[in-house]
Amino acid sequence: MNKELLLSNLRNIPDFPIPGIQFKDVTSLFKKAECLKELDDALYNLYKDCGITKVVGIESRGFVMGAALALRLNAGFVPIRKPGKLPAETISESYSKEYGTDTIEIHKDAIEENDVVLIHDDLLATGGTALAAYNLVQKLNPKKIMVSFIIELEGLKGREIFPKEADVKSLLSLDGE
Ligand code: AMP
Predict the structure, then answer these.
(1) In CATH, what is the architecture of 51-174?
(2) Does the structure show a pLDDT above 90 at 175?
(3) Over the stretch 52-65, which tens digit does the pLDDT of each residue have?
(4) Percentages helix, strand, coil for the chain, rounded to the nearest 5?
(5) Where are the domains of the chain?
(6) Pocket of ligand 1, beta carbon within 6 A
């Protein structure tokens, strides 16, 4: 993987959406064909031999590479969305954020017991969102769940809150918070 290409094209927006956050803007990678291809190949190479049958993308930046990867892997794609967005019967999971709580939902019939699932999002910060997604998918009892990110903010130690069997991987690790 050409890390230099990806890192040199990743835009950082200081103080977005609130003061103190260094926002890593993955749309600066998505818009450039060369970077999009690099992300697609890197994720495919990581997961091509894992027997994945469903890629679960977390709304909304997790949909982009999640859907692309599902196509490459001949797997299905499943969205995890904010409350009230999915039309059929859902199950939900709530989790604590710095201020208050958030909830995410998945269609109840999206995952079957013989599925091997890869959860995908753009970025791992504290891990709260992806762990809630992990717990949500776990309720549907698939054979295995793996978790992938484009970027990991290592300093926040988000990967430590996942159970050992979760197999968390990221393409780019950044020190920053
Ligand atoms: P967390 O639950 O703390 O791991 O936050 C992860 C979610 O928030 C992901 O969906 C990210 O898209 C978003 N996020 C959190 N921090 C950042 C950041 N510094 N730059 C870009 N996105 C972020």
Answers:
(1) 3-Layer(aba) Sandwich (3.40)
(2) no
(3) 999 999 999 999 99
(4) 35, 35, 35
(5) 51-174
(6) 21-24, 58, 61, 121-130, 158
